[in-house]
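Review box. Two proteins, two foldings.
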Amino acid sequence: MIITRTSAEQTDIRLYPNRSATWGQTKWLILAMSAVLATVATGWLIAGVWVILPFAGIEIGLLAYLFYRVSHFTYQYQAICISADRVLVSLSKRSPDLIFVTSQCHVEFLDGDTPWHQPVIILVGATQRIEIGQFLNHADRQQLKQSLATAGLIICRKNWWKND
């Protein structure tokens, strides 16, 4: 998902992964699936197969851990602030901001070799380069390319002869 805000001085672009469920909804799903697993394990325990309990516990724990990791991944973001003199890129709360000089900055848009490969968007400065929008789908990457071009950055395409 891309949110673009444009003012007279700068353009702010926020990138978020598409999220189908909130953390609260994910917790309810973990609880429901754990209840089903616990019910099945209890049935087997009553039938005398007590060996199933540790495996059911491991399955519930692994399920909860993986759901947590996926949900945590969907809450990352990238922020790009483009002004007349600089481009500021914030990748997450834990990493330092990257600053590019606007006049020395351009965007490399690398189309996928085949239709099912995602395009890659790289912000290139005089001394550094960073891939942005890795978690976006194909339509959002095309929208990001358009937003960066509208903000005044030069878009360089490896396969310039291809249509969008």
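Next protein.
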Amino acid sequence: MMNADITGTTAAEIADSVRALRERGMLRPGDALPPVRELASLLGVNRNTAVSAYRQLAQAGLVISRGRGGTLIAGSGGVAQEGVADTVLHDVASGNPDARLIPDPTKALGRIVGRPVLYGEPVIDAELEQWTREWMLADLPRDDLQVCVTSGAVDAVERLLAQALMRDDAVALEDPCFLASIHTVRLGGYRAIPVPVDDEGMTVAGVRAALDAGVRAIISTPRAQNPTGVSLSPARAAALQDVLAEHPYVLIIEDDHFSLLSPHPYASLIGPQHRRYALVRSVSKFLGPDMCLALAGTDPVTAERLAMRLSPGTTWVSHLLQRLAHAQLTDADVRAQIAAAATHYAQRNATFTAALEQHGITTNSSDGLSLWVRLEVPARVAADKLMRQGWLARTGDEFRLDDAAPTSHHLRLTVHDLSDADAARLIGDLVAAQR
């Protein structure tokens, strides 16, 4: 009996035993582990010890908890990622910006050549730092705001969590949630606490419950939440600031990834007296994912801790890249192209949404690169039918935090770059998929 092969008297020993059985092929992907109470009785340990062992295995990605469905050995297949898929299907799952709308950096490249930057020099380009400070203070007027630069928003979130948290600390995440945030939290060994998202952003009840659960950090998307496309309303932001006022040292990370492209004003969870915060703005959506650069406005303590992880000569962000970003962001022609891209995304998504509504299919998306489409049938059923018609769609199941949650009825569709003919064909196939 496999249960008898699991050994150990501490959580670490039990986890190591399961890991060894998995590595030797004695436990295979999909195999069920014994229930916690049964394992505790078998090994003569406290139930909490068995719970801790399973939690360690889950954080390491070795097992998957299915709630009442039990704990299963995880497979070695890749996790869901954003981006273009290697497929012959028409990809409406990518979540990508339109490459045709990303400004050409050729002109700016000729303006950034200067003296080389050597070891020990400041890690942030002075001109970019000043521009960023003015940009962020316009939305987040904090006297203590410090500017940091990282290799993209995901890098920023990972470093911010690492400087503030220890393994097994709890982090509040939006549910459904951005794929990269899910992976960052799980791979970092933190516990994800789901907070429901409605048409106005994170719910007040959800944030209260997360705080009661002891979260030490909250990751929020103030605009164009991925995958739902909703933006935080001013009223909801004010209500959440009131709740968070009693928890000033909980780290608030706001991933404002759609900043310059969003038609919505910036609303924030970060209150005027909150002590630990970071407003992160990547340039990926409007200057291109390959820029791999994000700007962050943080409190001084967080900035100091981040600086220890962005030391000169080892982990700084290239000054050439920083100068290129600054040259483009301060160029009137480039800013006009960004504004035109914002209009394009909003109009194409609005047109598609209106056409869907004529067929009784709804979407609550108000912003972003993709649409969050509600269907009458399970999303996986609809995605299979769409695949037979030549479409690759992304189901809402991939964005949920609870593997045991009910089957999603949402598809996240990236449609802004479809021709009118292709958009009409996709709508027809969506209608047929519900029959």
